[in-house]
């Protein structure tokens, strides 16, 4: 991978990080208050389900944020673009699709 490709991937990672931070700052995933005296049983069930979906979305955002930070650290250390399992270079096409991957296509499958 040449320097221009690495710069493009770093820019993509920074865009992903900014979008993730904006999504997190928008307040998605707030806790649902369940007042049993004002809400029916089905409404409470719907609210609980929505709350669990929001919690899982928060966990996914957290995992994605860690993957992005890890990729940015690997770029800084010079380890970016190499498979953790076999040490071979990960193809630019694979990194373009998901710049946070840590394994080549052979080791991932």
UniProtKB/TrEMBL annotation:
One of its GO terms (molecular function) is zinc ion binding. A zinc finger (dksA C4-type) spans 83-107. SUPFAM superfamilies: Glucocorticoid receptor-like (DNA-binding domain). The keyword Zinc applies. Keywords: Metal-binding, Zinc, Zinc-finger. It comes from the Bacteria. Residues 78-108 form the Zinc finger DksA/TraR C4-type domain. Coiled coil: none annotated. It holds the Pfam family zf-dskA_traR. PANTHER family: GENERAL STRESS PROTEIN 16O (PTHR33823:SF4), RNA POLYMERASE-BINDING TRANSCRIPTION FACTOR DKSA-RELATED (PTHR33823). This is DnaK suppressor protein. It comes from Microbulbifer rhizosphaerae.
């Amino acid at each position: 991978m040449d320097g221009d490709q690495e710069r493009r991937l770093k820019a993509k990672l920074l865009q992903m990080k900014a979008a993730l931070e904006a999504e997190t700052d928008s307040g998605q995933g707030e806790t649902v208050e369940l007042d049993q005296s004002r809400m029916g049983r089905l409404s409470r069930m719907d609210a609980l389900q929505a709350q669990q979906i929001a919690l899982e979305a928060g966990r996914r955002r957290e995992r994605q944020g860690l993957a992005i930070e890890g990729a940015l650290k690997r770029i800084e250390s010079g380890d970016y673009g190499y498979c953790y399992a076999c040490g071979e270079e990960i193809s630019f096409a694979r990194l373009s699709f998901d710049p946070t991957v840590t394994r080549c296509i052979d080791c991932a499958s």
